[in-house]
What we know:
Blueprint: H1 21-25, H2 28-40, E1 46-57, E2 67-84, E3 88-93, E4 98-103, H3 116-127, E5 134-141, H4 151-166, H5 173-188, H6 195-202, E6 207-212, E7 218-222, E8 230-236, H7 246-262, H8 275-279, H9 285-309, H10 313-329, H11 336-347, E9 352-356, E10 363-369, H12 373-386, E11 394-397, E12 404-405
Parallel strand pairs: 3-5
Antiparallel strand pairs: 1-2, 1-12, 2-5, 2-6, 3-4, 6-7, 8-10, 8-11, 9-10
Amino acid sequence: MRWPTEPATAVCRRPSSTLTDKEFLVNLDLAVLDAYRGLTGTEPEGIWRAPGRINLIGEHTDYNDGFVLPFALPQAAYLAAGRRGDGRIRIVSVDLGETVEYALAELSPGNAGWHSYLAGVFWAMREAGHTVGGADLALASDVPIGAGLSSSAAIECVLVSALNDLYDLGIEPMQRAKLARVTENAYVGAPTGLMDQAASTLCEEGRALFLDCRSLEVEQVPFDPAAHGYAVLVVDTLTRHSHADGEYATRRADCERAAELLGVPALRDVSVEGLDERLEALGDERLVRRARHVVTEDARVLEACTALREDDFRALGELMTASHASMRADYEITEASVDLTVEVALAQGAAGARMTGGGFGGCVLVLAETGQLDAIGTEVTAAFTDSGRKAPPLFVARPAAGAGRLT
């Protein structure tokens, strides 16, 4: 089997141009160009791209001031944009065939819908003191929604990148990621950490991004599994979730309470050495499990960086599997479809497997030797169909570049 590096289907509808199905899957820049022309009757000032991301390891550690190790995907949000002088925003979604319009003066947190991730960027940038006027925007994306691949961060980061260029703001990359995060937290209302936006903005091709979420120091860690006979197979379970629901916020509150009881600024400050004894002071089994996951996950991220530097993909796989076990037992954010995927992949000899993203569904990463991909894909698909589930889309992920303007 020739494994794709893109999802089996795009979430976008085909534009009015004469692209074939295959061409449309890989030409979202043409899709947004076509849509922008239809919206305005003019050419855009540019087209920008910002990717989704996969978190290789380090789940729910970012808002605990901890460590994460994501990499950017080829799948991305594409945006054609041009400035307006009347203080209004018009947005057309190629995916949905919808158009919305706002006045900048009308923007306020709490607006619902897909367009809130774009409207909120204007609000966040103006709140931060940046001079940003109106714009016409055409958006398309092939990052699966609700799959744990940061579709919302891609949308936010592509617009931040575009406005930074259009209005010549000179905002450095980490600050652009922070502005996108403000959109997600304060405007949309999802209490996420900085990892998604940082990955979409800062990642480099062929690298995983080690990010210290407290100091915001980064390291571009070489990550080329194919050169060593390995691949990262992504299994989209088609079980969808939302970061804005109560489960994510509840776990964040649990972590903050545990840190308070332990007398530390964040769980990142708790050592893995002597952990069980220290956690006894919490006096609450749920808080013990939540804290244990975060502390041990931080340690796994550091060990994973060492494994990558030494090209030890077997060690990386073991860390990924341990991460999934911790998410299942201690953080309690997995569900039946992701657990089934991990179980089947490991039974077929995968080096490691884990759910990626906020939890309660989404995608599973399977690290395996390239010669094992066919058997793993076949058995995972059979397990899904035998249990009455839809066959999951599968693709091989490769580390791609972060947000930027297309030439």
